[in-house]
Design brief:
This protein is 39% helix and 27% strand. The chain is α+β, with helices and mostly antiparallel strands.
């Protein structure tokens, strides 16, 4: 008899615990954009969204590194993305001159794309672009390999912290930015 009572109490305790846990979770989900979109409203169409629960849990959450930053007259976000790496070598006056020469040639051909020369430890690097996807970076790299062989010998796509401009200043120095430290270490 005691075992039956224990099982019943355990079952009710478990049910009560599930209710206590489910109430805050369901309260959060009711306010999510996904639930607002999929809510059945009389006389309107129906939207169905099929997604993994982990994705649903991320909707509406503030991402890492999403704080706005300002640099002169522009406002931007730092995010994970891709750049096209065009040059790297042990830092010396000769390699620095070569990096700036490659940058000059690149900006003549693509003045709307940002370029970044970074010095980190003994290396100097020259990278271009702020691409959210690998495919965007690949399009530029393939175009460089076809049209500008002299500056694309080392061209490869690299993961990097990118800059996503929110506001532009017309006097932004043609998109050229010099960074004192390697953006991978940030």
């Amino acid at each position: 008899m005691k075992k039956i009572v224990d099982k019943i109490l355990f079952g009710w305790s478990l049910a009560l615990l599930m209710c206590v846990i489910a109430v805050p979770v369901s309260g959060q989900q009711e306010n999510s954009i996904i639930n607002n979109l999929t809510k059945d409203n009389k006389g309107e169409g129906t939207i169905r969204i099929y997604q993994n629960e982990r994705i649903a849990a991320l909707v509406g959450k503030k991402g890492e590194g999403k704080e706005l930053k300002e640099d002169g007259g522009s406002t931007y976000l730092r995010s994970k993305g891709y750049r096209v790496h065009l040059y790297s070598e042990i830092a010396s006056q000769k390699s620095k001159n070569k990096a700036f020469n490659i940058e000059r040639k690149f900006l003549e051909a693509y003045p709307e794309i940002s370029s970044y020369i970074t010095v980190s430890g003994p290396k100097i690097r020259m990278r271009v672009g702020d691409f959210k996807t690998w495919e965007e970076a690949n399009r530029l790299m393939q175009e460089l390999r076809k049209k500008n062989r002299d500056i694309s010998n080392e061209a490869m796509i690299v993961k990097d912290d990118i800059r996503l401009d929110v506001q532009h200043n017309e006097q932004q120095n043609n998109g050229r930015t010099e960074e004192g430290e390697d953006s991978e270490t940030k």
